[in-house]
Amino acid sequence: MTSIDRFHHLGHSPVDPVPGSPAPDQAVRNVQVRRAVARLAAVRRVSLRVRSTRGQEGAEPRVDHYLFEHEGRRELRAVMLTPPGPGPWPAVLVCAGRNATLERVTGLLPPDHPGRDVAAHLTGAGFLTLTLDHGLDRWAEPATLGGRDPGDVLDGTLRLRGGSLLGALAEDAGAALDWLRAHPDVAPGRVGLFGHSMGAAVALHAALLREEPLPLCAASHLGTYETMIGRSLAWNQYVALPSILRHADLPDLYAALAPAPLQIQYGTADGRLDPGDAKTAGERIVSGHDTAEILPLPMGHSTGLAEAADFFTRSLAEPAAATPDVPAARVGFDVRARLDILDLVDDALASGALTLGPRGTRLEALASREIGRGTAAVSSGSSALEIALRIVGVEGRTVLVPANTFFATAASAVRAGARVDFVDMEPDGLGMDPEGLRAALAAHEDVAAVVPVHIAGVVSGSLAEVLAECDRRGVAVVEDAAHALGSSLHGRQAGTFGRLAAFSLYPTKIITSGEGGLLSADGADLRRAAHLRDHGKRSFEENLHDDLGSNWRMSELHAAVGLTHLARLAEVLAERTALAEWYDESLAGVPALTRPAVPAGCASNHYKYLALLPEGVDRAALKQRLRAEGVRLAGEVYDVPLHRQPYFARRFAERSFPHAEAFTSRHICLPLFPGMTRAQQERVVRALRDALS
Ligand SMILES: *Cc1c(COP(=O)(O)O)cnc(C)c1O
After folding, report:
1. Which stretches of sequence are listed as region Disordered (predicted)?
2. Which ligand 1 atom minimizes the distance to the CA of 637?
């Protein structure tokens, strides 16, 4: 019995909670449903390019024929109808049914079916419409299909690679929505979606894949999947995503659009719907989305044109509720990466190798190639630091760390048995001040290690002086490269400067494994690190321990995440660089903000995008003001220097590190994360300009 059968057998639909557990909050459920749809649809964010456009002279409303292409995959035809008179207009993206043609939907030819000319009708009611033709009947010669539905053949082909026709069509519709929203004739924030029959499935999925709420009117597509596809045989399999019933049925998908305005029409004489099934599906939708309108209409497999126009007139009267806030940060796994991770995790679970296995080894090999030095995967950046300092042998001696760094830099030294002292930042950069370092080395005879930190992903130009000074005194350098995976100075990668180096794969870092870290070193140091991370165990077979380490291993499940993410490092760096360069140009328009100079020869990974506030600006008040504008700043690096952290404050009460104090109180970090859009960046810069002028 499959799990779905078992659920039915018990009288539960596949998405009912396990008996006895509390019903999850509907909003949480909706988010889960949307995530499942995103996973199964496996849609990329693509953009449309206009290949050609042709206006129809003298037509009223105005008619424009578009031929789009997106990333060379397929061409997409569309017709835009613009009401007469001056815009901008509220707009509707029209996703037509399987057998509809552009000409009939847009009224260029007389309708061949009641309600077919929905785009013409909506434009007559005052909406700009863009109608898509997915071109299912044009992608293959009929002779090659042997009478099969081209949609079935295409869907079958796409499924071989984990995709689906519905996913591909929703991708088209999503790209068309982006294009439409940016069109100068379209009123900002006033865009809705209409779909009929198969087009309703496309419109529904396109809406589920978006963050902003979009009004949806769906006609003649209502029921439960098993009845529609399995029993009535009136629907092709490609109106549903593969495996969808493991997560949700059609009514749950509609309900998951809440609170966006939703109208669902169905014909009481529609031969393709089961009337009882449609009715109960409608009730189930309303129980999860209480403003949804379910309209049974006296029609066949058709559209109630007046009802649709009325719905959009009401739901597009105002711009959609405020766009979501620009978040401070975001973890960057697109749906392809998530699917790759699931495969690796499944492989690990099936094999039973759950720690110190082949995925960890692959992660190390990939990291070694990126960094240009051997690496050992460990449980965290903090454990990488502690292992490195134990290998150097700092117990009972002094370790020098920057006054401005994360607590873990110093705490790892303390845990390794050292006493820490701090060194100020350089006056005009983010690195360690060589003057301050010389003074600290003079003040302590017993310095075992110095730990420079590449704050914000910037490898300081003063690092050479720090290294030379340590070399002269015979003091080991352990790099804290937690921020700096992928950064370099004069072509040399961060993590290759010190005797050992530590990287963090914590979720806020450039590349993450959930929790995890990497230690980079050479030869005997690297072998010792691998030994220490596994309790100093002599070998896999023997229970003999000849060194005191700890459980600093990385699990195979974490390695699966880290490996998949690290394989995308080049893309991640390219995207961050493009975002940073756009900020560089745009902040020229915000003269109150200055940027710390990036040292010559440093290629930063742009882990943080820093700016310095003018003297006297209250950072907390500024952040609050930006938050009211829907903009969240990223966390500082750092807002409290270590000598002011409660754990150290008493010992360092008499000390001051003026450069670190000035920097920690004056800088801000602009949001910069994978998937950030130009519109979000513009919003950040606008909010900053307003707040600082
Ligand atoms: C994140 C971080 C660490 C610690 O890494 P974890 O993986 O969280 O243990 C150490 N130093 C710096 C500078 C960091 O940013």
Report:
1. 1-25
2. 15
Domain 335-568 top-level CATH class: alpha beta
How far apart are the C-alpha atoms of 126 and 312, rounded to whole Å?
A: 10
Question: Which atom of ligand 1 is nearest the CA belonging to 412?
Answer: 10
pLDDT tens, 491-544? Answer: 999 999 999 999 999 999 999 999 999 999 999 999 999 999 999 999 888 899
- pLDDT for 72: 57
DSSP state of 188: E
Architecture of domain 25-315: 3-Layer(aba) Sandwich (3.40)
Residues with CB under 6 Å of ligand 1 are 380-382, 405-406, 408-409, 453, 480, 482-483, 504, 506, 517
**Which residues of the chain form CATH 3.40.50.1820?**
25-315
Residue 314 in tokens = 């009401």
Using the atom order of ligand 1, give the atom closest to the CA of residue 382: 9
The rounded distance, in Å, linking the Cα atoms of 327 and 324 is 9
Residues of the chain within CATH 3.40.640.10 domain(s) are: 335-568
Residue nearest to atom 2 of ligand 1 (CA): 482
Q: Is the N-terminal amide bond of 24 cis, ω within 30° of 0?
A: no
The letter for the amino acid at 464 is: A
Q: What is the pLDDT of residue 87?
A: 87
Q: Where in the chain is the domain with CATH 3.90.1150.10?
A: 570-692
| Predicted pLDDT of residue 8 | 36
Residue 470 and residue 443 in contact, taking contact as beta carbons nearer than 8 Å: no
pLDDT score for 323? 76
E strand spans, 512-561: 517-520
Q: pTM for the full model?
A: 0.90
- pLDDT beneath 50, residues of the chain: 1-23
CA of 630 to the centre of ligand 1 (A): 29
Instruction: Choose which residue among 385, 458, 504 to substitute to test ligand 1 binding: the one with the highest number of ligand atoms within 8 A of its C-beta.
Output: 504
Ramachandran angles phi, psi of 129, nearest 5°? -125, 145
pLDDT score, position 24: 62
Contact indicator for 466, 431 with CB cutoff of 8 Å: yes
- Which pLDDT does position 73 carry in this prediction? 64
What does CATH list as the number for 570-692? 3.90.1150.10
163: amino acid identity, one letter: G
**Per-residue model confidence (pLDDT) at position 445:** 97
Q: What is the DSSP string of 307-373?
A: HHHHHHHHHTSS--S-PPPBPS------HHHHHHHHHHHHHHHHHT--BSSHHHHHHHHHHHHHHTS
Gap between the Cα atoms of 664 and 405, Å rounded: 10
Q: Which pLDDT does position 319 carry in this prediction? A: 87
Q: What is the pLDDT of residue 136?
A: 82
In angstroms, the Cα distances linking 497 to 369, 438, 454, 481 are 16, 19, 11, 10
Q: Ligand 1: distance of its center to the CA of 577 in Å?
A: 22
